[in-house]
Write a structure and sequence with these properties.
The complex is a heterotrimer of chains A (about 500), B (about 425) and C (about 425). Helices cover about 35% and strands about 25% of the residues of chain A. Chain A is of the alpha/beta class. A six-stranded mixed beta sheet of chain A has the order 6-7-8-3-9-10, sandwiched between helices. Chain A is globular and about 70 Å long. Chain B has 15 helices and five strands. Chain C is an all-alpha fold and about 425 residues long. Chain C has a domain of about 230 residues. Chain C is globular. The chains are: A alpha/beta (about 500), B mainly alpha (about 425), C mainly alpha (about 425). Chains in contact: A-B, A-C, B-C. Chains A and C meet through strand 2, helix 10, helix 11, strand 18 and helix 14 of A and helix 11, helix 12 and helix 18 of C.
Chain lengths: ~500, ~425, ~425
């Protein structure tokens, strides 16, 4: 089925999220929609899927103009979507999720689940998936959950399939498998829209590439274009994909983690017997696909996890088993991976957020009283130093852009006397400008002699920042390798192959 | 690295789900068992009630029953000692099971609870007789409004709207059923009016929660106040001066032929009013509706993950609105129990906090219609036990018996329910 | 960011209606807009709207109105007159019973209703502060009844059973009551912190537990029951432990009002000037961020509920040591624990807002009794009006729709800005 978008404009109040966007996807074509975070890709796809109504423009399927009042209409017309955040009910089974919204019933309004199971089996057989229709979604690994999303779309006989940032949660190997699936689908005549900001993937699988920036189409490219060409098109200027850094000046082991294990609230071992050291003056990157224990590892370092065994020593002093307060006071700086959830209080002002983790003593508090004058002065200084674009220190942090929010978090953490700096997913969801800023700050911190741990699921970021790389898989560290280890090796390690074997395989 | 390198290779099947599970012991059950075992030793043995050879008699049949079961008489003190010993042994056994990383079978918990209950009843009834059918009949009757309220709460909360307004729905149902049944002389129209009134309260809740995105707990609390004020005002202004608006006929007990003659079960379940019979149907229907139908799947979907429901074309707010309204219909019907099933007249604030107990039953029952019904029955039992013990002269001050359901609920939410999950989107408005 | 220099503060791209924006540079314009379209105006209109609904109820249930409605078509003016008489009579009685009595012989008598209002407001403000404080920490304290009863029981017992010199006796009784309330509230915080038990359920349950506990104590000789009596009622409070009257025996207003003013100042300081309050608010707005920032969230829940319970307890103390000093029964809470929720909501959980809301509701209560006595309108109408006020205030869009008010943020046409000047829109564009 041929899909055509003509002159789509979508506004949110004063913001123009999509400005006169036109796009054509031929039948059986994989069309990549490339753009930065916040460029308007997801908005456009939500318009296509009937979740938003565009102010201007029209959607055509096989040259017929469509009117979508909601996702139901879009689905009936043959559009399916594999969402970035899976639209699956975690406590439902695979079959229930797949039939939700177009259920078949038997006598007396009874839900016909056996028909649903048959449907799941039929579609999953067609693509060689092996999925139990009666498994609960929450028990499935993310890669499998994504396949359920695909089955869900295909069971509606989708002719146009939209993949919204589908590789964010996958290992490189799973990503390759997804690419094969997308190829198969395209060969069987399905039109595919592939939304991403990852240049490598676009070039590997797309037939055509449309680049959008700040809500506008800025150009088309062919898959033969170079990374640099695509990147400059996407960002609007020449981009340096690497961070300038000198070789690390190592100053001895600062953090030592031995035999660390973490058990979560569901009694699962999420970090399994992990040991590593970090030297003062180096960046240790922890790579791995989302959900392999990195989050829990950083939380354990900060004292946020309850069932932790093993030892954590910073400058020879034990940290494990102490309160978060004590660990912060011991000089651990922490950038949490979900800044809106864990890093900031959205309704607090910038100034209040800047004192958030120093609310128990001097200099912000004296004798139980807040030192408002000091806080205002401090906030003004940090806003200038970290170039936080705001309307003043009393502006609510929730109204800042993602990049400026992250600067508030960085300003807060880096203005304490640090002995260790832990940054989890420090650039997730940020625009390129902010990413460069954050990376520069991290390297500056390293060069000032502070040991740094960066957790990232983005290989680009890992490679850009790391002096050494620890790869995690299913709660264990597969291996710790030098910062210049080839991506292919890292990819195999992220899928669980131990380091030496991975290197031997090449 | 070229990305697609294995075109011809068969796709690997999805990775096997390997999850390492740590063995973490939970001592909640042994601690609870231990507490009850100690309590039973102190009460049944320590207080030494019935040491002069008193008997505790359990009457199992009513005088008019066709089949008469003999009375069971237990020696109070001996029974107490035996039960206390067994309970202590069971507590030790549960601790041992936990220590050995074994699961404590649910049967053990049920047997433990029943034994404690028997021990307690024998202890309390020292030298007198407990009418078991009467105790249970009253349990079912008293539970009826709780069960209706709990079902209404379950329907609403499964769809993702917190329903603190059960009290208001019950009270509105009680008021309007009394007025309509009195005015028309037809109690069935009264039932209908109760459902309409409950639905109206629910619609206000739904409108404020879904359209104006007001915090659902706040709307619920305010609705309770509003309905209490409104019914009290109208009672003083309208009902009190003219008695003919507040004297509905009370439904009689209907004996179901044959079934009502089954020993114990018959009188308890099948010699009730039409309101209780409707309750049986309602429990079954709510369960079937929520877990076996297309509608129920959608209701649960909007309560768990509204966005997922929206992306497959389900109208989230409409689904929620209907479920909440239906919940009001059910709760409102339960309100009719107070006027048409029991008292025969409306009184100010006559629901007296039953809506809040129904809410507790919803949570205690883990948002499941059957479990919530069982929880409501437990509360009804505790209340009626206090009544019965009051008649035969209870050794426990009646206030402490009345406290029991609330204390049990606190233990439940602190212990067992703390781990269970509410519908994920419960209380959260859906904004695209 | 370029738009700080724009002449008019443009509304942000926030698609949520009713989100009021503050613009540092344009604070004054914003303040004006807040008054016309914003929260203050909404509050006033909500009160007006609720009074209108109350008037409708009064008119509908009035005998004379029903009578005249019977022959509406022959003499419609009778109906209008009857409605006016019913409503005006009720509301003027309400006013004269709560603020100023025009018919009184002299000023000192005429002003008496106002002091009654303040007397009724005293426990409402105290309990409202408690509920409001819990709201600010993200918790819903429906346990006012239980906390008041326990506090009243503790303070009352000290007041009638212990002999101490005047002054010290009062202070000890107050402290006992505060502790009682703090413990009853603290249990909730402790259970929430340790086991995750939902505070709504626990507070509701503890209300009943407290009620039955007090009922038991009230009928147990040697506990709270008056010696030689069979009634479930305490003996009178000792004169040494009673709040002194503020303006002499002519008025009921007692020094408890001063404790409530002090409590309001304390809560203001706690929330906006102290570091504990900072931690309270952080936990209330975003508990996970607070935890990551090293704030001990569990302790915050415990402290907040204990302080909340103590403040609600202050309401119970005021009841037994100020308002009803002749001995009390299990109904001493008088529903104040629930009224406090509406007071806190109306005051938007801000200390001085609660103070004002408490006085308004105190006036309703004082006037309500006068209205019931003079016009025969049941005082329950006041409950209805109060509930409606809160309901309307909670839903500004509804009030705006009824009065055709503009939505704040759209009062000036949104200026279309070039999207390129803003890099701040990731969240929305996503």
């Amino acid at each position: 089925m041929k899909l055509e978008l003509r002159g789509i404009t979508k506004r949110f109040g004063a913001l123009v999220a999509n400005n006169n966007i036109s796009l054509t996807v031929e039948s059986g074509e994989i069309h990549a929609l490339l753009g930065e975070n916040g460029a308007g890709k997801s908005t456009l796809m939500n318009v296509l899927y009937g979740l938003y109504v565009a102010e201007e423009g029209e959607i055509l399927l096989d040259d017929k103009v469509q009117k979508f009042a909601g996702p139901g209409d879009a689905m009936k017309a043959g559009i399916g979507m594999v969402h970035q955040h899976f639209m699956l009910v975690p406590v439902f089974t695979v079959a229930e999720n797949v039939v939700l919204g177009h259920e078949q019933t038997t006598f007396g309004g009874r839900l016909d689940l056996s028909a649903a199971r048959a449907k799941v089996r039929e579609v999953s057989d067609r693509f060689g998936f092996d999925i139990d229709p009666d498994a609960l979604i929450e028990d499935l690994p993310v890669g499998v959950q994504q396949r359920v999303e695909i089955i869900k779309a295909l069971s509606q006989d989708a002719q146009v399939l939209v993949f919204d940032e589908p590789t964010a949660v996958l290992t490189p190997q799973e990503t390759d498998e997804l690419m094969i699936i997308m190829r198969q689908l395209a060969e069987s005549g399905t039109s595919i829209v592939f939304i991403t900001h990852k240049l490598r993937e676009v070039r590997a699988v797309a037939d055509r590439i449309t680049v959008i920036r700040l809500g506008t189409v800025v150009g088309e490219a062919s898959p033969t274009a170079t990374n640099a060409e695509l990147a400059s098109l996407m960002v609007g200027r020449a981009v340096e994909l690497t961070v300038h850094k000198n070789s690390p000046e190592l100053r001895g082991t600062a953090l030592s983690v031995q035999n660390l294990s973490v058990v979560d609230s569901r009694n699962q071992i999420v970090v399994n017997n992990v040991s590593f050291d970090v030297q003062a003056g180096e960046v240790l990157a922890i790579a791995g696909v989302q959900g392999n224990g990195q989050t829990e590892l950083t939380e354990a370092l900060l004292g946020l996890q309850h069932h932790v065994t093993g030892s954590i020593e910073l400058d020879g002093k034990p940290l494990r088993g102490y309160s978060v307060r004590h660990i912060l006071d011991s000089g651990v700086g922490f950038v949490p991976e979900d800044r809106t959830e864990d890093g900031l209080v959205a309704d607090f002002s910038i100034a209040e957020n800047l004192m958030l983790d120093r609310s128990s003593g001097a200099p912000f508090v004296k004798a139980g009283n807040l030192q408002l004058g000091f806080r205002a002065k401090f906030a003004a200084e940090k806003i200038a130093e970290f170039d936080i674009r705001s309307q003043g220190s009393e502006m609510e942090a929730g109204r800042l852009s993602g990049g400026n929010q992250q600067k508030v978090v960085l300003a807060r953490e880096l203005s304490r006397n640090l002995r260790l700096f832990v940054a989890a997913q420090p650039t997730r969801g940020l625009d390129v400008g902010s990413i460069e800023f954050v990376h520069t700050r991290i390297i500056e911190t390293r060069d000032s002699g502070i040991p740094v741990i960066v957790v990232s699921t983005e290989l680009d970021e890992v490679v850009a920042l790391a002096d050494r790389i620890a790869v995690m898989y299913r709660g264990e560290i597969v291996g710790i390798v030098p910062g210049n280890t080839p991506r292919a090796t890292l990819g195999l390690m992220m899928a669980g192959e131990p380091a030496p074997a991975a290197e031997a395989a090449r | 690295m070229s990305t697609i390198t294995q075109d011809s290779a068969p796709l690997p099947s999805s990775a096997p789900i390997v999850k390492l599970t740590a063995q973490v012991r939970s001592w909640k059950i042994p601690i609870t068992f231990g507490a009850f075992a100690i309590a039973s030793v102190l009460l049944f043995v320590g207080l030494g009630r019935g040491q002069r050879g008193e008997l505790s008699t359990f009457r199992l049949s009513e005088a008019r029953d066709f089949i008469q079961l003999p009375e069971v008489a237990l020696p109070t003190f001996v029974t107490g000692v035996v039960v206390a010993i067994v309970l202590v042994l069971m507590a030790v056994a549960s601790a041992w099971l936990v220590y050995r990383h074994r699961k404590i079978p649910i049967v053990l918990t049920i047997v433990f609870a029943l034994l404690f209950l028997i021990g307690f009843l024998a202890w309390a009834a020292s030298g007198s007789t407990i009418p078991v059918p009467g105790l249970l009949i009253g349990t079912v009757t008293l539970s009826a409004p709780l069960i209706f309220g709990a079902l209404g709460g379950v329907l609403s909360e499964r769809a993702g709207v917190v329903n603190v307004a059960i009290e208001a729905q019950l009270l509105a149902g009680a008021f309007s059923s009394a007025v309509v049944a009195s005015a028309t002389g037809n109690p069935y129209l009264g039932l209908l009016a109760a459902m309409v009134a409950g639905a109206l309260v629910s619609m206000v809740l739904a409108a404020f929660a879904l359209k104006y995105l007001v915090d659902q707990v706040i709307v619920g609390v305010v609705l309770n106040v509003l309905v209490i004020g409104l019914t009290s005002f109208l009672y003083s202004q309208v009902l009190a001066p003219s008695a003919n608006l507040n004297s509905p006929d009370v439904f009689p007990r209907l004996n179901i032929p044959l079934l009502s003659e089954i020993p114990i079960i018959g009188p308890v379940l099948f010699r009730q009013t039409i309101i209780v019979y409707v309750m049986y149907v309602a429990v079954a229907l709510v369960f079937f509706g929520l877990f076996r139908t297309k509608w129920g799947l959608r209701v649960r979907a909007v309560g768990e993950h509204p966005q997922a429901a929206d992306t497959v074309g389900i109208n989230v707010n409409r689904t929620r609105f209907i479920a909440v309204t239906l919940g009001g219909v059910v709760s409102g019907f339960g309100g009719a129990y107070f006027t048409l099933g029991a008292v025969g007249a409306f009184n100010k604030e006559m629901t007296n906090g039953m809506g809040f107990i129904a809410l507790a039953a919803v949570i205690f029952g883990q948002w499941h219609p059957i479990k919530a019904t069982l929880a409501a029955l437990l509360f009804g039992f505790a209340t009626n036990l206090q009544n019965v013990l009051g008649i035969i002269g209870s050794p426990v001050p009646s206030e402490f018996m009345l406290m029991l359901p609330y204390v049990v609920t606190i233990f439940a939410v602190a212990g067992f329910v703390g781990r269970s999950r509410a519908p994920a989107a419960d209380g959260k408005p859906y904004i695209k | 960011m370029s738009d700080t220099t724009a002449a008019a503060p443009a509304p942000g791209p926030d698609p949520v209606p009713g989100a009021v924006k503050k613009d540092g540079s344009e604070r004054w314009t914003q303040a004006l807009r807040d008054i016309t379209g914003g929260s203050a105006m909404i509050s006033v209109l909500a009160v007006v709207l609720a009074l209108v609904v109350g008037a409708v109820l009064i008119a509908f249930t009035n005998d004379r109105v029903q009578e005249t409605a019977g022959y509406f078509f022959s003499r419609p003016t009778d109906l209008v007159g009857a409605v006016w008489e019913a409503v005006a009579g009720a509301y003027s009685a309400l006013f004269q019973g709560s603020i100023y009595n025009f018919r009184a012989p002299n000023f000192f008598n005429a002003i008496r209703p106002l002091t009654e209002t303040l007397t009724f407001a005293t426990p409402l403000i105290a309990a409202g502060l408690g509920v409001g404080l819990a709201f600010r920490v993200g918790m819903f304290n429906i346990g006012g009844r239980g906390q008041m009863l326990i506090a009243a029981g503790a303070a009352g017992w000290v007041a009638f059973a212990v002999e101490l010199p005047a002054g010290i006796h009062l202070i000890v009784a107050i402290v006992a009551g505060l502790l009682g309330g703090a413990i009853w509230g603290g249990i909730v915080g402790l259970l929430k912190a340790r086991t995750g038990a939902h505070e709504v359920i626990v507070t509701i349950m503890l209300n009943f537990v407290a009620l039955y506990l007090i009922q038991f104590l009230l009928r147990t000789p040697g506990a709270l029951q008056a010696p030689g009596s069979n009634n479930p009622k305490t003996p009178p409070m000792a004169a040494t432990a009673v709040f002194p009257e503020l303006f002499g025996p002519r008025y009921n207003l007692h020094a408890g009002f001063l404790t409530v003013i002090a409590a309001t100042i304390f809560v203001w300081w706690l929330l906006s000037r102290s570091n504990l309050g900072f931690q309270f608010r952080a936990v209330g707005q975003n508990p996970s961020a607070a935890r990551v920032a090293g704030i001990n969230v569990k302790n915050v829940y415990l402290y907040a509920m204990a302080i909340s319970g103590a403040l609600v307890g202050l309401a119970g103390i005021n009841q037994v040591l100020g308002t009803v000093t002749t001995g009390f029964g299990a109904g001493i809470d008088a529903g104040i624990g629930f009224d406090a929720i509406t007071v806190a909501l109306l005051g938007r959980s801000k200390p001085w807002g609660i103070f004002a809301a408490g006085i308004l509701f105190g006036a309703f209560k004082a006037g309500g009794f006068a209205m019931q006595a003079a016009e025969g309108v049941p005082i329950d109408i006041v409950v209805v009006v109060q509930a409606l006020i809160v309901l309307f205030i909670a839903a500004p869009p509804l009030v705006r729709a009824i009065f055709h008010l503009p939505t704040p943020g759209t009062t000036k046409g949104p200026e279309i800005r070039d999207v390129k000047t803003r890099k701040t829109n990731e969240v929305v564009a996503k």
